[in-house]
Prior knowledge:
By secondary structure, the chain is of the alpha/beta class. The protein has a single domain (18-155, 221-293), classed as Alpha/Beta hydrolase fold, catalytic domain (Rossmann fold), CATH 3.40.50.1820. The protein contains 13 helices and 8 strands. It has helices spanning 18-21, 63-71, 96-109, 123-134, 157-164, 168-174, 177-185, 190-204, 209-219, 226-235, 254-261, 277-280, 282-293, and strands spanning 27-31, 34-41, 48-52, 75-79, 116-121, 139-145, 239-244, 266-270. Strands 1-2-4-3-5-6-7-8 form an 8-stranded mixed sheet, sandwiched between helices. The radius of gyration is 18 Å and the shape is globular. The N and C termini lie far apart (51 Å). Mean pLDDT is 87; it is low at 1-8, 157-162, 167-172, 174-179 and 181-185.
Amino acid sequence: xxxxxxxxxxxxxxxxxxxxxxxxxxxxxxxxxxxxxxxxxxxxxxxxxxxxxxxxxxxxxxxxxxxxxxxxxxxxxxxxxxxxxxxxxxxxxxxxxxxxxxxxxxxxxxxxxxxxxxxxxxxxxxxxxxxxxxxxxxxxxxxxxxxxxxxxxxxxxxxxxxxxxxxxxxxxxxxxxxxxxxxxxxxxxxxxxxxxxxxxxxxxxxxxxxxxxxxxxxxxxxxxxxxxxxxxxxxxxxxxxxxxxxxxxxxxxxxxxxxxxxxxxxxxxxxxxxxxxxxxxxxxxxxxxxxxxxxx
Length: 296
C-alpha cells in the first residue's frame, strides 16, 4: 500500500474501516482526531483506572491486568492510541499534544468526571506524565512502568536514522511485521511473547501503522518529557514506579533519573522482567498495582 509520499509499507494491505472494526472487542468513540477503540470493565462506580500502552504494541498488552483490575473493583479503561490497534491513523503530528488530547477527549466522551488513576507503560508513561502535568485536577494517582520520555545518553542507530535523516521512511518500509513485534514487545519470556503476536500483526496490516510509528519517533515524545516529570514530582502527585531489571528497551538505569525528578515516588524493581513487567510478571506486579491504587 502506497502512502502519500510514494513509500510502500510492507504488509499494510488493509484499510481500517467499519468492516474491519467489526473484529474488535469493546467499543469506539468518535473523537476530534479520529475514531478511538476502547474497552471498559468493572463496576461503573469504581475508581477509574486508565491503562495507557506504549509505542507500538496496542492495548492487548494489558491482557494480564485489565480484567484483574475490574475484578478488584476498579472501573478499568484501556484504549488504543492513535495509529495503533483499531484506532484511526490520522495524518498529523504524533506528538504529546495529539495523545494528550486523545485521552482528555476520551474521558470527556465517556463522562468520566472524577480524577482517574493513570497506569502508563513505556511511551504510555510519558503520555501519562504529560497528562498529569497539564491536567492535575484529572489525575488522582500515577503508576509508571518502565516509562519513556527522558533523554537517553545513546540512541539506537535505527532510531537515530529514523529521527534525524530522510532514511526513516525507507527503514520502516523494509522492516517486516515479525521484526517490528520482536523489537517492540521487549518481553523476556518467549512463551508469553508469542501470545502478543497475533494481535500485533493484525494491527500492522492496516494502512498508516508504520507511518504513525515513524511520526511518533520524529516528534521526540519518547525522549522529551523531562520537565513534565519534574513538575509532577514537585506537585507531589502520589506515584509508583515499577521497572523490570532486564529491560533492554528503556534501560533499568533510567529508573534512577525518574526517582531524581520525582523524589517521593514509590519504587519497585521486578527481577527477571524486561520492558513489560505487568505482562511478564503479573503475579508480582498486579498485587503491587492493586494495593497502590486501592489507597485512599
